[in-house]
Amino acid sequence: MSLALSRQQGSEEDRGKVLERAMARHHYSGAALIEILHAAQQLYGYLSRPLLRTIASRLSLPPSHVVGVATFYHLFRFTPLKTHSAVVCMGTACYAAGGRQFMSILEQHSDANPGDWTLEAGRCVGSCGLAPVVICDGEALSRLEPKDLESRLREK
Amino acid sequence: MNAESLNRVRTAEHDRQSGLTDRIMCCSVAGCLSAGGGAVRAAIQREVGEQGKEATIEVCGTGCMGLCSRGPLVRSAAADLVYAEVKPDDAGALLRHDHSRFEGRLLAPDHPFYIQQRRIILANSGRTDPERIADYISQGGYQALLRTVTELTPDAILAEVKMSGLRGRGGAGYPTGLKWELVARNPSALKYVVCNADEGDPGAFMNRSVLEGDPHRVLEGMAIAGFAVGAQQGYIYARGESPLAIARIKTAIEQARREGLIGGRVLDSSFQFQIDLRIGAGAYVCGEETALIASIEGKRGQPVPRPPYPPEAGLWGHPTLINNVETFANIPTIIEMGGASFASIGAPTSPGTKVFALAGRVERTGLVEVPIGTSLRTILFDIGGGVPAGHEFKAAQTGGPAGGCIPAQYLDLPMDYDSLSRIGTMMGSGGLIVMDSSSCMVDLARFFMEFCMDESCGKCIPCRAGTVQLHEILCRMTRGEGRESDFTLLAELSGLLRETSLCGLGLSAPNPILSTLRHFRQEYDAHVRKRRCPAGHCQIPPLKEHAA
User: Fold this and answer.
1) Shortest alpha-carbon distance between residue B276 and chain A (Å)
2) For residue B79, what is the domain's CATH number?
3) Model confidence at A9: pLDDT above 70
4) CB 3.0-4.6 Å disulfide test: which of A146, B95, B153, B182 passes with B311?
5) Which of B200, B202, B299 has its CB closest to that of A92?
6) Residue B206 to chain A, least CA–CA distance (Å)
7) Cα–Cα distance between B35 and B64 in angstroms, integer?
8) Do A91 and B202 touch (CB under 8 A)?
9) pLDDT at residue B461 above 60?
10) DSSP H helical segments within B370-416, as ranges?
């Protein structure tokens, strides 16, 4: 599963301890900010404003710098993942093989089930030989046909 | 580890492998795994267990075998065959080498897909277990590093790399030897080596496959570079979207450190070289070297004007050598075979091989490695098996969002840096996507412009605003609302971006437009003047709806 789609792990106290250890391992250096944001997202599932503020103060960085860096990169997310998630690959091979239609199928499904789905357009998952590809709840569906995706969604 | 113990590991692993009756290697990288490779491996493992042959048959995971479209792939070392489209219930027949069950699913080394390839970078990929350092050592791995630290001087290595004629495999093709020399000649005491593994071009998965299939080759290349330029610290900047590659690099770094192949005293010499991993977070612009440096420093990945170039002032202001994964992966081979012999492979102006990721409308898709200068026709038709029946070749796209298209009349063009740039495209990092008549070239240009617009870091105005305007014009055209004056606007804006953008992203963003305009102008004309999409891809509503 991609790093962007990890869900919250362990108890609040444990998460705090693991994150603290990650920061200590990098000697609370601002240069390790991206590494620490990765660790935080893996633990908490997403980067909330209070979490970013904590990281800023532990690393002695201005909160604006931390938010500025975090929002620059596509892999960091600022809202929790919903029950289901899907990434539609929009790399060249998948796009040329009709990847766009899967996004509209998913959007329709998501509209019919409000609040259940996190949808993302991915930037090439690197399985171009098996295009078009959709990653649905962590499972890579390759050489996908619209009807296959629809039947998958009915099972969810 | 020293010379003696390195050779001891090599011999021990050889002995272990020759004690086996077979090694069953299951491709365990993204393509084959998503085709069900995990279940196949488990079934084979179970079958070996049931037959009680764990001691004589080894089942292991391995790197990409190339032919992703026929996955899951499994290789038997004893039979020297690759089995394609293997299903879990094939396990028994595969272990018996009952080939009648694999009619049409056997790939021998003389299969058309393999016969014209020359594998240097991918030599071990699909043939060794990337998670076992002993397997790499048994194939002669780390011998080049051993020679480097025991017999060679930094100057001798620079001479070999220069003589090899190796050019950077990231896309631009800058001579590697010259770049190394710039860093080596810098008197600074503190220098860095950075491996650019931020492979962000859509349609490119070469670097990821090399890291997944043979990570030690890259570490060895980096360590040799560190010795040659006088650096003690290396960084690999990998894409966050490739979790398997990240895991394999981590494992490889740990193993190499434990064995004393990197770290305080490399192979018991006085040379020290550390390698650390930095993980990107999904920003295409970070493939640009100054943006990559900013990202390693923990900042927003925004480029800064050059000069100074990184060999002068890079990471934290110190001289920094930045090369692509594939460039480093060539280095052990250059040291082993010598620069002069390496220079005899491939094209005279671009020696060596190039790995291409073949995808799109072609029979056999996957990863291929050919001598540079091989014609596109050989790659697509001999190796790739041509376009599927019922489709017609229209163009091949190379170089991703910074590249362009190769139309049918250039099929016999040798694929090298200079020939490709003469027809308005570029080698790029190696993505090669085949389009047929159902692909609209105006929409393709729009697709890439959308990509560049999203990925523009926003620092310089030509790129930030120009990509938005270019995208808007192309959207208009694909909706059938293009105007005659749009052609002038496209040309003017493209020229502006090419001349005034701060970094490679903006400078090359217009390339897909200019390339498709050059080779497929008639499609643009059809969209604008006849309000018609010849490929039937764009949804252009009938005229009267727009009359108002």
Assistant:
1) 12
2) 3.40.30.10
3) yes
4) B182
5) B202
6) 9
7) 13
8) yes
9) yes
10) 376-377
